[in-house]
């Protein structure tokens, strides 16, 4: 998914992760395939992650709660353009 997103929407050079390992192995392989660098934040480093957490909160409050269309990334992207 990271590669597809990078190809179709925004060219990503790197992704910062919070260290949650539930899907990391597959995600890491996909990112390597598309030359996307991964940076993993140290455990319990809330100060380093606060901007991302705030962005996620804003995204959920401002977009997800108001968007009534398909829960499809391509559809959402077209709506936002």
Automatic annotation (TrEMBL):
A Gene Ontology molecular function term of the record: nucleic acid binding
SUPFAM superfamilies, alphabetized: Ribonuclease H-like
Record lineage: Bacteria, Bacillati, Bacillota, Clostridia, Thermoanaerobacterales
Protein name: Integrase catalytic domain-containing protein
Any GO BP annotation: DNA integration
Domain Integrase catalytic: start-end pairs: 1-81
